[in-house]
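Example 4.3 (complexes with small molecules)
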Amino acid sequence: MRHREGDADEPPPRAPSGEARRELPGDLDRTASASDEELDADDDGRPRPTVYPIELDEDRIDPDAAKVVRRLVRSGYEAYLVGGCVRDLLLDRRPKDFDVCTSARPDDVRRLFRNSRVIGRRFRLVHVLFGGGKVIETATFRRAPDADEDRGTEDLLIRNDNVFGEAHQDARRRDFTINALFYDVERCEVLDWVGGMPDIERRAVHTIGKPLVRFLEDPVRILRAIRFSAHRDLGITPEVYDAIVETRTALSRAARPRLFEEVLRLMRGGAAHRALFLCWETGVLDVLLPELSTFLADREEDDDRVWQLLQEIDRRTAENGPLDDVVLWTVLLGEPLREACDGVRDRVETAHEFLEAVVDRLNVPRRIAESIRRIVALMPRLESGRGGRFSRTSLYPMACEVLDIYRAALGDAAEGAFDAPSGNGDGNGADTNGADEGEAPGPRATKRRRRRRR
Ligand code: ATP
Ligand code: MG
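Answer. The structure with adenosine-5'-triphosphate bound is encoded below.
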């Protein structure tokens, strides 16, 4: 633990101050980030950051997050705003949440804030709690594990990133340069150990260090790169793009709950269309959702339905905030699911089998998979305005939203999109168990058959 010295109200000088201050490097074409060795070192041999005097708009900084930082600093610790909030403020976006990192150990933070709790077993963080359920996550600096500490050279996958460290080490263990900037609230300075500011300037997503290595260490970073690019409208450097293509199959080794969550994050942020397009273009979709990528590869040339549906999701997200997870998944899988069910006698079983593979691969919770299956199976009734008993279930509003999205995105082409079977009873029999969901398709059924990719 390193305590700062000096007056509690005055931030102590950063020795040797000023010397590390540099202009934005003019050469923005570099493809690798600065390594520790390239940076100046202070008297203790610690790499010195490039310091950018930048006054971020106080009004946009969460006052409670600033309070946490200030109290830590006044208690003698180093503390900064870090990660997504600094990146988003610099990109002129409103941050989703504010994270703090500090030299204080979790128990020290806990002692300073009565309204806090320590969470996490593997890596202990402190949640400082404020009114309205606001949480300021406060993490002690940590470093990446040594290369030979936990893994061989063959297997780069990080399994333990649980070691406390110093600020510069904490910066370097992060994923992308734009995510590793520290903001000193007192001094109004951005500290950059990794070349993040130039990447903010040129609006580029670049890994800290070699992209191949960083993606193999943690393949979920591939999806994070795609998400940041899509949602913040940033470019992906060619080196990073190529590494995504090269390492994409490593995604199948990532923890499945993380994959599930990341796919949702791609869908939620208002840029689902761009994110999924990038996944498709890079071949990432082949690994995550081969059902969808095969569908896209085999569709007729003028069939843009999947993209139109995703655009409609983005439009609604911009208008009303993120959609329900069940709605997002149903629309994402809607077209290939519809195709799989096209013309089959037993829609229930077919939808079930289709979803089983996705559930296994991405750890989709049963609750969600079952909801998708029921919505898809019952959609034909809904389309013809015969919700029956289904209309009294909690799934009904979500099913209606899916249908609305189809209608808004596809217009007339949405009619019969779900392969409405003919003569499906009186419309009241559609129960939530899907007892009669497996009828044969009627005249409105989509007749198109697609080539299967081998
Ligand atoms: P968002 O606004 O979407 O939350 P974020 O950058 O805050 O974006 P988080 O998932 O909240 O993303 O992560 C917070 C920070 O933790 C990131 O900015 C990054 O510095 C670091 N981080 C998160 N995931 C990883 C990872 N897989 N590898 C390395 N660093 C990571
Ligand atoms: Mg975040």
